[in-house]
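## retry 2 of 3
previous attempt timed out at serialization; input unchanged, resubmitting
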Amino acid sequence: MRHLPIIVALAAACALPALAQTPPPAKPATTAAPASAAAPQRTLLSVKDVMRHIVNPAAETYWAHSGEVDDEKGANDRIPTSQADWNISIDTAAQIAEAGNLLMMEGRARDPNGPWMKYAIALNKAGVAGMAAATAHDHDKTNNAGNDMYDACFQCHGRYIPRPKDSLYKHDIDKDLKDAGVKAPK
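## retry succeeded, writing output
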């Protein structure tokens, strides 16, 4: 009799998989709208806050794990050498990809039918490419994605952030790219 509680517990545990296969009881029909329709999309952070709290930290961290830096000792490759560092690249590229989506939302998009969307899409694509490259541990594609992130940021800032005339950020980036013989992203 001393073993009876153990036998009961084992029998109950063996029955759990069978219970899990039992379909749940049907729910009564309702006329309420789905939850997604009840909660409209809205922006909580300004563009400046998205940049400050999401894009900048993610981009800086991604770039710290890609490319190379030249110093007095020569070129130092910053591509990850451990799975933990590759995971950081994957995570920050995912943040960049999603930030591109955040910048396209109504309430943030400066000119929804203009260059703003082109740059936000470029940022999104660069983040997705960075995720794929880091997942594959692809040295060159990881660097290329970092370059694409930088280009999207530089071009958008050149168009939308007022700068002094002698700034590296140009106000007409498309003209500057054309004059330099570089095709602007679409």
